[in-house]
Write a structure and sequence with these properties.
alpha/beta, three-stranded mixed beta sheet, 15 strands, 279 residues, globular
């Protein structure tokens, strides 16, 4: 069955974890008294980049800035749809300066960048999914930002409320397996998510929109199995999410385990480190 899944080449923007550290606590995963192994983090990050390139994806980098330890989490800096860039306005004051180097990179690459007026954390809470943008709120990105996103892209935005502080961003509780443009037969888009990360009404919305979604357990989610990246065939996933990887394989996907355990100390994983540039 996996042979029928068609991968689509992606273009990713990343940032080397040269200055990665846990210097403050803005989510339940972060404990400044637990030191980060910077060398190990660098090795794990390089393994992710190698995995992307080995599967045919393009990877470009933003230069890391001293004093911005979370800049490695490139997904939070923007969301890009059809070559249009919606920037970020971070909730935590410590992260707000990260927007500038990313905006500078996009402008140098020839993009205009929209600066949001409301708190918005890029692909952390904004997940393009075919005809929709799925948008998280509850801990970081505000509902006002959802309205800005819809006005900017002209794409229907589906607001989803997150209720568990361990899953403070949408990309820790949900990822897109394949969207309408992936070219898989009979595909109208599908997702993976952890239901208990969402409010009851949001769970109902997801069940209506994605009746064939793959559901993850709390164990999968705590292993950062929902912070994954899919190209429509290969799913770059935390090796700790073994049950979820098995369910994906049953559906015909090919799990590609990549260990980013050092980044979990800051509440991040594969997707957090990966900004997709959708041309």
């Amino acid at each position: 069955m996996s042979d029928s899944r068609v991968p689509r080449r992606r273009r990713f923007l990343v940032c080397e974890p040269r200055h990665f550290a846990v210097q403050y606590a803005i989510n339940p995963w972060m404990h400044p008294d637990r030191p980060v192994d910077v060398d190990l983090a660098g090795e794990q990050w390089q393994a992710l980049i190698r995995a992307y390139r080995a599967h045919g994806h393009t990877v470009e980098s933003v230069e890391p800035v001293p004093g911005l330890p979370d800049m490695v989490f490139a997904a939070n800096a923007a969301v890009v749809v059809e070559g249009r860039v919606f920037g970020s306005l971070f909730h935590a004051p410590e992260r707000r300066p990260e927007s500038v180097p990313y905006e500078t990179w996009f402008k140098a690459a020839g993009y205009d960048v929209y600066r949001p007026e409301s708190v918005c954390e890029g692909e952390g809470d904004l997940v393009p999914a075919g005809r929709y943008i799925l948008a998280g709120t509850g801990f970081r990105t505000t509902r006002q930002a959802h309205r800005e996103v819809q006005e900017f892209f002209g794409v229907p935005v589906i607001g989803l409320t997150l209720v568990d502080p361990y899953f403070y961003h949408l990309d820790t509780a949900l990822f897109v397996l394949e969207d309408e443009g992936d070219g898989n037969d009979g595909n109208d888009g599908n997702i993976v998510y952890y239901p208990d990360a969402f409010s009851p009404g949001s769970r109902e919305v997801l069940a209506r929109l994605y009746p064939d979604a793959v559901l993850a357990t709390r164990q999968d989610a705590l292993a950062f199995g929902l912070n994954s990246v899919s190209d429509g065939r290969h799913v770059f996933i935390s090796p700790g999410a073994t049950a979820l990887a098995g369910r994906l394989a049953e559906r015909g996907y090919v799990p590609v385990p990549v260990d980013l355990s050092e980044f979990r100390k800051a509440g991040g994983g594969i997707k957090c480190c990966t900004q997709e540039i959708r041309s």
